[in-house]
Design brief:
This protein is of the alpha+beta class and 210 residues long. 34% of the residues lie in helices and 13% in strands. It is built from seven helices and six strands, in the order ααββααααββαββ. The protein has a four-stranded antiparallel sheet, with helices on one face. The chain has a two-stranded antiparallel ribbon with strand order 1-2. The longest helix has 19 residues.
């Protein structure tokens, strides 16, 4: 069984950029993570280090149950998360738009750094393992409005049983076509379907590979 990372390695992993997985640490720390398969050194200058898929799994794993945060703590965690729609406490801070823009630019840079041909017009490996967050970030960065906690106007991005596919739901008022156009521009394949249970129309979106 693979040994868990040391406390020092875990601190470096936990401090990685939440979107790109870019790491900061001493050369010895970064080299040890590379040896363990938790990070890789990008071949292009400036030769930054990034989490591998295994490193992302380590960061996202909960070593032990954590107490629930107090009601006011969610917006103060400093961890960026794209709005998927339906959040009980949506982030309405004035700095939100700037953070979304920065996260999207970071994701484009991650595409450039990790796609074999350096392409930024199609999703990268991180997006394929974080489908809901990746699709929601593309929509929010393009200015689409997520649905509120009671539904209504706006998009909702949800996981599906299908591999590498998310469902995007929204009112039949032009929201879905607009979301489809945004996702296609961001490198996703999109089709419109009808839910057989409630007859609601929705988008099924998957990251494009080529």
């Amino acid at each position: 069984m693979t040994r868990p990372p040391t406390a020092a390695q875990r601190r470096v992993i936990d401090a990685a950029d939440p979107v790109t997985g870019r790491l900061r640490g001493t050369q010895a720390q970064l080299a040890s993570l590379v040896r363990r398969g938790l990070a890789f050194r990008h071949p292009r200058p400036p030769h930054d280090h990034f989490l591998t898929s295994a490193g992302h799994r380590v960061r996202e794993a909960e070593p032990e149950p954590a107490p629930a945060p107090p009601p006011q703590a969610e917006a103060d965690t400093g961890v960026f998360a794209a709005r998927v729609g339906g959040e009980e406490r949506p982030d309405t801070r004035p700095s939100r738009a700037r953070e979304v823009h920065s996260a999207w630019q970071g994701l484009l840079e991650l595409r450039r750094m990790t796609n074999p041909d350096g392409a930024t017009d199609r999703p990268c490996g991180w997006e394929r393992t974080h489908l809901v967050q990746a699709a929601a970030l593309a929509l929010e960065a393009a200015g689409h409005r997520p649905a509120g906690p009671d539904g209504g106007d706006g998009y909702r991005v949800r996981a599906t049983p299908q591999p590498e596919a998310v469902a995007v739901r929204g009112p039949d008022d032009g929201t879905r076509p607009a979301c489809a156009a945004t996702l296609e521009k961001a490198g996703w394949q999109v089709g419109e379907h009808t839910d057989p249970r409630d007859r609601e129309r929705y988008l099924l979106a998957s990251p494009r590979r080529a």
